[in-house]
């Protein structure tokens, strides 16, 4: 009590100008005004990435990649229709068209055959899957072709016509083991049919389409990328997750090689100039601080380059530190190339 009285008497003895000139200095830390979250656009596995907390990136720069299921061509052929578009539900497209797209095989004809008419020996009545045979038109000896046995069911078997000279659809043919078409090598007869286009199907949603109508494809060529979740806005994706706009990466939440779910947070960021200084003010200093007042702010790292900030908020509740009550005072900072999240600074009121 005696010390407080002495301090009070000393203050009363000071000139008014000295009291008015007294400056309050409060240390604080630079924080983001608003933290924004970057979420996974769809489920998948996170690929390797190099982004780190604190990186300053431009809008559109790639942060992460998320894998998708890939649909490949099972054989050589020609795309005869592409019904799916990026963002489409595979089930909806298939329900309407029967497939995401169709592939017409290079092999145009097949033949449904039987051992009827085969040479009398048993060996010509037993057909083997995979063996090469020769076919000739029943009505014109000049129309011939080569074929491979693709399936056998008792007396019946199926051929894939691999090459032909004017063989025609629905034509009756005789089948031989000998290219000379001798009766002693005959193993049956059948009818030539077209090979129907094969529909490509999948489950999920179309992230990307890699083919177009009429395109030639080889076995193993990429056709579609499929993800399990509906894509926002019925739009496709190239699998990358990018910065929505320029800013500072505050945290990296994703991990390479992990399975991630749609809308799961992957990172947080703030805009590059969207920063503020937060200072814990003692309760006895609050009377000298008002929202809207301008204050001088000095970064510890750049003491010779002070700037002017504006008080935008005074906390309505104290942050107890165990000894005295303090209230966070938030100061809006001007855009400045030196300001970085986590920097220490001093505000003068």
What does this structure look like?
The structure is a single chain. A hairpin with a 2-residue loop joins strand 24 (294-299) and strand 25 (302-314). The protein has helices spanning 2-13, 16-20, 90-97; strands spanning 25-32, 36-39, 44-45, 56-57, 62-65, 69-72, 77-82, 101-105, 109-114, 132-137, 144-153, 156-165, 172-176, 186-194, 198-200, 205-209, 216-217, 222-227, 240-242, 247-252, 259-260, 265-271, 275-282, 294-299, 302-314, 326-332, 344-348. The model is unreliable at 1-12 and 14-20 (pLDDT under 50). It has a six-stranded antiparallel β-barrel. The chain has a six-stranded antiparallel barrel with strand order 9-12-11-10-13-14. The two termini are 28 Å apart. The chain folds into four domains: 12-33 and 274-348, Efflux pump adaptor protein, beta barrel domain (Elongation Factor Tu (Ef-tu), domain 3, Beta Barrel); 36-67 and 239-271, OB fold (Dihydrolipoamide Acetyltransferase, E2P), CATH 2.40.50; 69-105 and 198-227, RNA polymerase II/Efflux pump adaptor protein, barrel-sandwich hybrid domain (OB fold (Dihydrolipoamide Acetyltransferase, E2P)); 109-194, Translation factors (Elongation Factor Tu (Ef-tu), domain 3). The chain has three helices and 27 strands. By secondary structure, the protein is mainly beta.
